[in-house]
Every structure is written in C-alpha cells, then in structure tokens.
Amino acid sequence: MIRAEHLHKNFDDFAALSDMTINVKSGSVYGLIGVNGSGKTTALKTITGIIRPDGGEVDFDGEPVYENLKVKQRMGFIPDDLHFFGSYTLKDSAQFYKRLFLRWDNGRYREMLELFALPESKRLSRFSKGMLKQAAFILTMATKPDYLILDEPIDGLDPIVRKLVWKYIMADVAEREMSVLVSSHNLREMEGVCDTVGIVDKGRIVLERDLDELRSDIHKVQAAWSKPADSEVIGNDSDLKILRREKSGAVEHLIIRANRDLLETKIGELQPLVFDLLPLSLEEIFIYELGGERDALKQLLF
Amino acid sequence: MPSNNYYSEPVSKQRESTLGQYFQLSGAWIRENLKRFWAIPALGMLFYFFTFLFPLFVEDVYQNTESYLRDISRFQNAGLVLYSVLFPLIASVALNRYLYSSGSVNTMHSLPVTKGRLWLSNLISGLIMVWLPGIITFAALILGYAKYGYSAGIAASLGKLLLCSAFYLTLFNLAAMLTGNVPVHIIASGFISALPAAVVLMIIGLCQTMVYGYTTRGDWDGVMLATFFPPIAAAINDTGVLTASLDGWYYIIAAVMAIAFYFAGAYLYSRRKLERAGDSFAFTFAQVIFVSCITVAGALILGALFWSIWGGAFPWNIGMPAGGIIAFVIAKMVGVKSLRIFSRRSAVHFSLTFALLLALLGIFEFGAFGYEERIPAVSEVEEVDFQSWNIVPYYSVVGNNNFITMKDPETLEAINALHKLLVKDSPLITEDYDYYQSSFGLTLNYYLKNGKYMTRYYWVPHSVLEGSGILEQIVMSGEYQKAMGIENWIGDAKIEDLSINHWTYHYNSSVTLGSAEYQSFLNALQADRDKIDWVSLIGQENDDSPLFHMSLSIDRNPEMDTYAYDYADVGILEDYTNTIQWLKDKGYYDILTASNEIYRGNN
C-alpha cells in the first residue's frame, strides 16, 4: 500500500502541494487526474522520494520512502520527462538496471523486448518519444516492481501499444498485487483502468472516489411511467437521491444515486412502461457527482 | 503478494541510517560511471603522453631527459599542476551533471541508490578516472628511467599528484552541491578556491592592521598557502623558504581539507532540494553569498578600472559604488538565472550588500584604521629595503630597480621624512600621473625591531618632492652610492664581452674584451659616473634616452644580494666622455660608428 498523508510542498511562495492525501491500496490502480500545473508531478516526485515534502509523510507498506533503498528496490517510476544516459543503447540500459535492481527478470525483459519490437542495439538518443516511453516501460517492468508510479504514461503511445502497456500493468496488478499510481491530465484515459480516481487541483485532492463504488451508486435511468404521478413518487422517495432529471415527451431520464438493487426494486414496484439502466461514462459520473460546478472538473472535461 | 522471493516478506521497519549511507559504495554505480566516462581517463593518458612521455622520445629533447625527470621528481612541471586542477574539474562536472536537469535527477533518484551511496561512489569513480593515468604514467617513468636515479622523487611526486587531485575533486564536488548548472558549477569551483583565503586574509589583515598596525608577510604567506592552494603551493615551492620547513604540514592540511570538503559536500547533498535542478544555485544562502562577494569584488575591480581609464573624472570613491551596482546586477542575473531581478527580496539583498560596500569605502576613504598614515618611528626601525623605480633613469644598472638596504640612522631619518611627506601629500600621489614624464615608483620595506615587517608602495610624481631635498639626501647617502657603484655590481667579476644596443632601433653589436682591458674600461666608466650631477639627474624625464646602452657580460658578483643576472646594462650618456674616449682609444669604432649613426638618426 502506498500512503501519502497531508503532503505540503512549497516552491518559494508557490504552494505546489497543499495538504494532499493519497492512499493506493495493494493490487489497485489509482488515477491522479488534474490539469497541467495542478501538482500531479510534484505529488509523484514527492511520493517516490525524489523530493522531500515540507510537511506530511509518505510510506510504502509502512516503510518511509525517502532515501530508503529497500523501498526503491521494489518501486518503479516512469517520469514524464524521461532520461537515459546519452550514449546508451537499450541493451546497455538493461545491463545497468540488472546490476542495480536485485529483482531484475531477464526473461521478462526479453519477452517484452520482442513484443514491443524495439531495437536493442540502437542508441536511445535516436529513439522517438514513444519508443523511449516503451523502453522505459520495458526496463521498469523487468524489475518486477511492487509499486509502479507513472507520470502521464501513455502520452506519445499509439493505441495498440497503449493496450499492450495496460495489459502488462493489469496482469501484474492481478497476479502480484502491484500497486499502481498513475497521473494524467485526461479523465477519459483513466476510464476502465483505475480502481480509484483522485482529482487534484491547486495541490490538493478535491475529489477521490472508488470507481466501482461510484458506478454502483450512480445510475442513469430511462423510464416511461404508467401513471404521471409515479414520477413524483420516485422524486419523493428518500432512499433515492435524484441528481438530475430531464423529460423528453413520455420518457424521463434520471440520474439517481442509490443502491442498484434498491433502485430496481423501487422502480419495478411502479411497473413503468419502459425501464432501462443505461451505462454511465466516468465523465458523466463526475459531472453529476460534482454538479458540474467545480472548476477543476470543468477544465478536465471541456 | 510479489511472486519473487526476494523482498517478498514485508519490508522491515529498520531503515539504514543516512550517515551510514555516506560510507557505502555502489559497485554497480562505479562501474557504470567508468563505462560512461571512459573518455576522461583516456584524455588524461593523452595529456600525460604529450606532456611527459612524448617529449622524452623526441630526439632533440632527449638530451634533456634528466632535466625532465628532475622537474617531475620535484613536482615542478607545469603539466602536473594543470592536470591536478583541470582533470578533477572535468571529472566533477561530468559526474555531477545529473543534478542539473529535472529529467536526469528524477531518474537517478528514483533508482535504488541512495544519495549517500551516489556521493561516495561518484567520488571514488572520479578518483579512479583522475588517478589512473597518473599512476600508469609515473609507473612507466619509474620503470623506464630508473637509471637516472629519480625514482623516489617521482614516486613522491605521484603521491603529491594524487593528493592534489583528490583535494580538488572534493572541492569541486562541494561546488557542485551548491550549484544547479554547469557554468555556475565551474565559476563556483574557482570562487570557493579563493574564498577561504580571501576571508582569512581579510580577517587576519584587519586584525593585524588594528592590533599591530603593521602587516607580517610571513603570516600572510602562510595563510595564503594553507587556504588557497595548499597542495599546489607546497609542491611547487619545494625549495622555498616558507615551505621548506612546513612542506609536510601542507599535505596534511590538504588531506584534512579534502575530508572536510567531502563531508561538507555530503551534508549539502543530503539537504539539497533536487527540484532546483537547472537553477544557478541549489541553496538560497549560496546565491546570496555569491552575489554579495561578486558585488564587493566587482566594485573593487571595476572601480580601479574606471579610475585607470578615466582618471580624475571618475574617482574611485565614485567608481567603486558604480562598479558595485554593475557587479550586483550581473551577479544577481546569474544567481537567479533571470533578467527579472527587481523584487523586494533583491532590494533587501542589494541594500545590505551596498551597506557593506559603503562601509568598506568609508574605511578606505577615511582611513578608519589609520593604516595609510602609520609610519614607524626611526627608533622602531631595524633597517629599510629601499627600492626606487625610475627615480634616476639610466644611471642604475640591471633594470635600476634593486632593493638597497639602508641602516644608517641619518638615512633612516631621511626615509622617515620622505615617508611623512608622501603621506602628507597623499592626495597628490593619487592624482593622475604620466608614467613616462615625471614620476617614479617607490617601495619601502621596513624591518622593525620588534620582528614585524611592513611594506608600503607609492607611485610618486616628482613634483611632490620638488625643492624638499629629501630624495637627494637619500640618493647621495653612502649606502645608496655604494649600492650603485660599479664595484658593487661587478666586484671581482671578469667582463668578457661588451655589447652596444639601441632599443629603439633594435641595433646591437658586440666585441670580446681582452682580459687586460676591462679594468681600464671600468676606470673610465667610474670616472664618468663620479662626475654625475645627481640633483640634475633626479627628476630627469624618462624619455631623455642615453646615447646608447652597453651590456656587460659578467660573472655575477655572488655577494650582491640582487637579481641573478649575468649581465649589466649601463646607459651611456652624452657627457660620458671618459668612456667614449676609451672606446676610441681601443679602436672599437664599430660601436661608436653605430652609436653615431644611431645618434644622428635619433636626432
């Protein structure tokens, strides 16, 4: 588990992190989402122990990260601005990682190298940005990290490679209970991969939700009532919280926060002419959750 | 849970101590450093090859093999000095560059290697890179040239080289921890080299000035050697008076300082904010000190520069503050790496720095310590080394700037009166002057009875002393006359050759003097010098050239405590009739013809 509690970090007069708290459970993926300059990268650098926070604590399974070799042996970090030694090839870098990381898995490295089809003997300085991302990913995953921290990981990757990258990550999450913390400035990119999403704005988490919980709590309902009064019955039910409702002729669209079973039971009892539960996108969930009022969310979505 | 057995157990709560990590090595990191920067030792080998080995193999230099080996065994080869400073700087920049960009610092510090391990591993890598070429080269020299018998000396020089290199590598690594980019790292490296000496000298200088009123050169030199270039100074000055007895101590001091630099650098690294990669300085205090010091130094240098260019139109008490403002602005721009330096913080910094500058200016301007006006009483003085430069043009020999030791009480009284006059007329002395027309340089080195030493230097317009008769009194003193007499600078030495030259026309001609002739020549020359009108000579304009110069090749008088020249240069004036007649009598017409031609041409 990665635990970052009440992080504060100032750069001169600018508060880059302001009481930020993030908890990444073992075997889960946490998406840290925010616009450029919101504090995502500073948060990741602080969590990985690259920079020291002015306040707050970071630990990995109870072990502080800063200057801690044992934690760093189990941690993989792929920054947004990648760096490799100037004259090195992927092969040189692999040898370097092999010497540094005690858990280096050469078989995995070979397997991924073949799958990603990267030239092993070509200088990394001649790689494109996307190829460098792939190279960094191969090297990091070959160290078999228990904690994987990724800063804008899929920038510059084509859709096929993106899928491949996430496939590997998800496999490790499932098989080895790897904890993943991933940042992005795009909410849509995180959909389908994150278990938890935190929206960061001005150095603090303004919203943090478990997506499964969120999805099971918020529902988009399409219904046509057998009696006009049924609409009022639903609206007055204290167990169902209506976040939004729109009527189009006889059909009404509702966004309702409630337990799914309870919702189905309550609406079923009214015997509507039409009753469908429609899928909700992550964007819609956050819009309805926040009422579309929050600046941070607006910038992420529009 | 992780499938790999290693670290599959919960992470221990025990954490390595930070201090302990600064004593741990990462073999992987050292190996990687050597792989990445192999070009540095390779360049070092090339350097050594072309500096030491290649010249030994070249035929025309080969005859000087022993000389080369002797210089190397005494650590007196400039190449060694250059190497022990330059290559540690190159290695330090290469090894610490990762701290200067956000991308590299992120990657490096997310890897499983602590700052402590990185720090020590980088130092060891640097030492290997810098030491290896020297060890190989010196081993080759010892093995290949053992027959010359300098092996022990060469081995000792190798030891000095290794220590010097280590000293500078730790110093430059310390500079790297303070800075955030390569250019400022290099500037700071030089700056730190000089800063301890500057601070210590300033403190000691001020203390001595206030407490004793005089400076003691021995202490100053000792401080300079111990703080500025301890290993280099000690090594170069193997035969020097100061270092002869302290040689070993300097190496101990250098080693202790290298260790101190190591720990200071390690501490700074542990405190360093890695997010400041790319900034000029990693610590605000370093930027503040840098800008303040550059401001003060810039004020002194630019103030002197303005004064030298514009003279009275830009007096130094205006030039110095102006220079300080310019230096502050430039240093601040470098320090904050921006042209936008006008902030509230900068204003506070500027105010404090400028207050310091004005305080210094006040000290100089108003003679706060009375240093300039302090003149030792005659009763306090043991002797004075008197050096005049261009005071009596073309009379003195061998560059006419020898020190003349004065002990006679009457002469000391005259020197005291002269010094008082100079201090009284100091505003005149600081006026603009014409180097070639009406001024002379004067150095007074006082050796006091209490063992202290005091030195003062002035550049004096003749007008200051006009009519006082003090200078004439000194010049006509027995001690001065004796020092300037022919017998003093030639003694029993044998003159073998006479040559004539005219500097303006680049003419020279020479004859070999017979052994029986030189005494009569000296007699004629002495007769001419005896009739010189000293009073008219003093204040003579410097561009009143003599008729011609004669250079006398001599065996230097070993008793003469002056420069080790093996020739004497004498200006022959128009009224040196005895000397000119002697040349005619001996038939050295070519000299006279040449001089006549030159003389005619000159007029």
Draw up the topology in text:
The complex is a heterodimer of chains A (302) and B (603).
Chain A: E1 2-11, E2 14-24, E3 29-33, H1 40-47, E4 55-60, E5 63-64, H2 69-73, E6 75-78, H3 90-100, H4 106-116, H5 129-142, E7 147-151, H6 159-176, E8 179-184, H7 187-190, E9 196-201, E10 204-210, H8 211-217, E11 218-224, H9 229-236, E12 241-248, E13 251-257, H10 260-269, E14 274-278, H11 282-290, H12 295-301
Parallel strand pairs in A: 3-8, 3-9, 6-7, 7-8
Antiparallel strand pairs in A: 1-2, 1-4, 4-5, 9-10, 11-13, 11-14, 12-13
Helix pairs in contact in A: 4-5
Chain B: H1 18-21, H2 27-36, H3 39-57, H4 59-62, H5 65-73, H6 78-96, H7 102-110, H8 115-144, H9 151-178, H10 182-211, H11 217-227, H12 230-236, H13 241-244, H14 247-271, H15 284-310, H16 316-336, H17 344-366, E1 381-389, E2 403-406, H18 409-424, H19 426-429, E3 439-448, E4 453-461, H20 462-465, H21 470-475, H22 478-484, H23 486-490, E5 495-502, E6 507-512, H24 518-530, H25 534-537, E7 548-554, E8 567-572, H26 577-585, H27 589-602
Antiparallel strand pairs in B: 1-2, 1-3, 3-4, 5-6, 5-7, 7-8
Helix pairs in contact in B: 2-8, 3-6, 3-8, 5-9, 6-8, 6-9, 8-9, 9-10, 9-14, 10-11, 11-12, 12-14, 15-16, 15-17, 16-17, 24-26
Question: Could you give a short description of this structure?
Answer:
The complex is a heterodimer of chains A (302) and B (603). Chain A has 302 residues and is an alpha/beta fold.
